[in-house]
């Protein structure tokens, strides 16, 4: 069993750290928010006074932070203090370029590193069923795989440093676009007098089938577990969808890829967020498409 530093014990980090404790690892945690540290302590995490103390003697350092600037600042701070040959695993969702800079900081200090953003949300973090998309060397991935296992349903090695973040933003760009497409289809069906259930029954077994329809159906009824059945309580908040779509747009511009539907989805989610829906599930955009604010 390993000594693991866990930095960033928020909505995702805390349940992930709790699963590492349950698997028998010794977890040394740090966060800037006292309430999050209290939750961590109640889950069996040893709370440390700062990030430096958390990484001391740790073979593995996991970060789960809001954005790229937080990751770079924490890496610059802790990499010089980490144990030699430690493995850094960044699970935050950040842009590809910043992920590569974080790998470079780790390499300067002879540390192993992978970017390993996740899909599955808070529910997946609690259940230990997250999908991890990993980028980094084969050696770093081999070290990381058994550590990720108690938090994961699936771990995919996507390629070299930054490839995990690339996979994450490409996947979430598909998701943002497809949710708008499914929402538009239901709004059109309503105008044409077609019931939600009839459209669902046809499209879910036809060529319109997709995750946004069959798992996360944006109208109440056809998929009882979807957020539409609980007044669009997330789930996956529209604020996080907008963050990921913007990361995809930045990456597309940097790489010279044409992503016109990704750009349009970013605009629509920006408007939806600006109307005060950052904390609404992203499937709630169907109400915006209907021209309703709620
Ligand atoms: P969160 O805001 O709940 O947690 C982030 C934590 O990082 C906070 O507790 C904050 O205090 C802490 N933090 C910030 N700077 C710090 C520092 N310098 N030192 C120590 N702690 C610091 O966010 P979250 O929902 O847990 O998301 C974390 C990451 O996971 C984000 O990059 C997000 O995009 C990604 N993600 C979230 C979800 C989701 O459903 N919430 C799903 C997939 C991916």
Note the main attributes of this structure.
294 residues, alpha/beta, Rossmann fold, N-(1-d-carboxylethyl)-l-norvaline Dehydrogenase, domain 2, 2 domains, 6-stranded parallel β-sheet, 3-stranded mixed β-sheet, 13 helices, 50% helix, elongated, binds nicotinamide-adenine-dinucleotide
Structure in words:
The protein has 294 residues and is an alpha/beta fold. It has two domains: 3-160, NAD(P)-binding Rossmann-like Domain (Rossmann fold), CATH 3.40.50; 166-289, N-(1-d-carboxylethyl)-l-norvaline Dehydrogenase, domain 2, CATH 1.10.1040.10. The chain contains 13 helices and nine strands. A six-stranded parallel sheet has the order 3-2-1-4-5-6, sandwiched between helices. Strands 7-8-9 form a three-stranded mixed sheet. The longest helix has 29 residues, at 163-191. The radius of gyration is 20 Å and the shape is elongated. The N and C termini lie far apart (49 Å). The mean pLDDT is 97.
Name the strands of the widest sheet in spatial order.
Answer: 3-2-1-4-5-6
> Percent of residues in helical segments?
40-55%
Mean pLDDT: 97
The largest pleated sheet is described as: 6 strands, parallel
Summarize it.
This protein has 294 residues and is an alpha/beta fold. It has helices at 13-22, 34-42, 51-55, 68-78, 96-108, 121-127, 138-148, 163-191, 196-203, 211-214, 238-255, 260-277, 285-289; strands spanning 3-7, 26-30, 46-47, 60-63, 87-90, 112-115, 118-119, 130-135, 152-159.
